[in-house]
Known about the structure:
single chain, alpha+beta
Amino acid sequence: xxxxxxxxxxxxxxxxxxxxxxxxxxxxxxxxxxxxxxxxxxxxxxxxxxxxxxxxxxxxxxxxxxxxxxxxxxxxxxxxxxxxxxxxxxxxxxxxxxxxxxxxxxxxxxxxxxxxxxxxxxxxxxx
Length: 127
């Protein structure tokens, strides 16, 4: 479960094969991510890509400061997460005050280690 002070990170699930995404859509996604962050006044810390278990794309995004729940869900929509998932997540937040994010069942330390390996490349791409 994510609590409000943890709204500085999100996973985006993209239903496109990883190789195809990296070849054709990575640059477009990154430009859209930057635009969305500017639009909502959110500063990126970093982002990185992972191949999902089914061969598609997961994007791990971390913001420098926590964002409020409304902006959190609007950012998810803006960068292209599954629309039904966003609506259900927002309704759940309204009803319970919490966001369930099953992607966070995995250890964050593993992602942090991966982030360190690609930090320079990601940082260059953000600017």
